[in-house]
Amino acid sequence: MPTTPSSNPAEALRLIKPSVLAQGAYTLAAPQAVRKLNQNEAPEDLDATLKTAILSRVAARPWHRYPEFAPRSLVDRLASHYGWDPEGLLVGNGSNELIQATMSVVVDRDDVVVAPAPTFSLYRLLAAVHGARYVGVPFGKNFAYDVPRLVETVTRERAKVLVLNTPNNPTGSAVTRRDVESALQATTGLVICDEAYVEFGGESAIPLLAEYPRLVVLRTFSKALGLAGLRFGVALTHPAMAREITKAKLPYNVNVMTLEAAEVVLDHAGAIQDRVAGICATRDQLIRDLRTLPGLTVYDSAANFCIIRCSAVPARVVFERLFEDYGILIRDVSAGVDLAECLRISVGTPEDMAAILAALRTILGETT
Ligand SMILES: Cc1ncc(COP(=O)(O)O)c(C=O)c1O
């Protein structure tokens, strides 16, 4: 009997791996807000003069030709910027692409990936896509990294990968280089140090690369360097590992505009560093100011965001009122592990911070 093709999507979905069906997609509702403090982006756009410089460089390039995979001059400049071997440096369409490439050459079905919980959710999702088991390890008191417990878990589970996001999204906790080294010494799997926020605080693991080929350090131009919209990230590892990770990267993923923009931003790294210092000062002031408000626990942070825990007014109410009454969009992270009643606030301009403080004072003051 000939079978009749069915138009029922359930037939097609049967082909999807169960581990993928079980996950939610990485997504984020993006309502327009007067003050956008939900994605840890740079609070201010690149200077108009730099944008013009990038655009004129892009205009001078042929658009009908593929870009180079990674222009030698840019790779050499990145290598000297980060202090690592150009042969061990990969560029990607955002660091997300490099997380994916790294995991896809290492993580096989039934492998174990260990990471602190809560952390950046893409790791869990990609572990599932590769059929791996993901084991989250809680932080200690006040979201301090519990490295002995992470190491113990990696050993017990014979994990293939340990992810250390430092400073960690969403908690802002940083791990010391010494602790990264102790984790490398005590384990035999891959250690991924995701340093998306390290320009704002904490220590980089880059100096450990020379001694530990099992280490991959990820950096991004999306946060401190202010290029989230153009998508550019960097992976640093031993050249032998870089050659393997390259195999999982799609060709030509970094477009001409992004390659030019990365060069121009590197030309102005000094000015950007000044901006980063300003953001760190704003963060420290924000944390001090938030601590004067009633009904909140405010956690320390080494990143360009911080976590608050609401006790007087439910976090969901605070989140909604900030958005609806004041046009301030922050991130509701309260569904995360150990994050009940928690909200994440990205550090914005000093004006953004004054606005959120005034709004919180009203929202919290009204009910206490
Ligand atoms: C920890 C962490 N890693 C990586 C990324 C993604 O960065 P990119 O924009 O370079 O893909 C983010 C973005 O929020 C992040 O929080």
Summarize the structure.
The protein is α/β, with parallel strands linked by helices. The protein has helices at residues 9-13, 18-21, 48-59, 72-82, 95-106, 122-129, 147-157, 177-186, 239-246, 256-267, 269-290, 315-326, 350-365; strands at 35-36, 89-92, 112-117, 133-138, 161-165, 190-194, 215-220, 233-236, 296-298, 305-310, 328-329, 331-332, 342-346. It has 13 helices and 13 strands.
Task: Describe what this molecule looks like in 3D.
The chain is of the alpha/beta class. The chain has 2 domains: 14-43 and 271-365, Aspartate Aminotransferase, domain 1, CATH 3.90.1150.10; 61-267, 3-Layer(aba) Sandwich (Aspartate Aminotransferase, domain 2), CATH 3.40.640.10. It is built from 13 helices and 13 strands.
Produce the secondary structure layout.
Layout: H1 9-13, H2 18-21, E1 35-36, H3 48-59, H4 72-82, E2 89-92, H5 95-106, E3 112-117, H6 122-129, E4 133-138, H7 147-157, E5 161-165, H8 177-186, E6 190-194, E7 215-220, E8 233-236, H9 239-246, H10 256-267, H11 269-290, E9 296-298, E10 305-310, H12 315-326, E11 328-329, E12 331-332, E13 342-346, H13 350-365
Parallel strand pairs: 1-11, 3-4, 3-5, 5-6, 6-7
Antiparallel strand pairs: 2-8, 7-8, 9-10, 10-13, 12-13
Helix pairs in contact: 3-10, 4-10, 5-6, 7-8, 12-13
This protein binds pyridoxal-5'-phosphate.
Strand order of the largest sheet: 2-8-7-6-5-3-4
Structural class: alpha/beta
Mean pLDDT: 95
Please report the distance between the alpha carbons of the first and last residues: 73 Å
User: In the CATH hierarchy, what is the architecture of the largest domain at level 2?
Assistant: 3-Layer(aba) Sandwich
Largest sheet: 7 strands, mixed
Order of helices and strands: HHEHHEHEHEHEHEEEHHHEEHEEEH
Task: Give the tally of β-strands.
Answer: 13
Specify Rg, calculated over alpha carbons. 22 Å
Q: Strand content of the residues, in percent?
A: 15-25%
CATH class of the largest domain: Alpha Beta
Whole-number count of domains: 2
CATH topology of the largest domain: Aspartate Aminotransferase, domain 2
Helix content: 25-40%
Q: Could you state the CATH homologous superfamily of the largest domain?
A: Type I PLP-dependent aspartate aminotransferase-like (Major domain)
What are the distinct ligands in this entry? pyridoxal-5'-phosphate
Number of helices: 13
- State the shape: globular
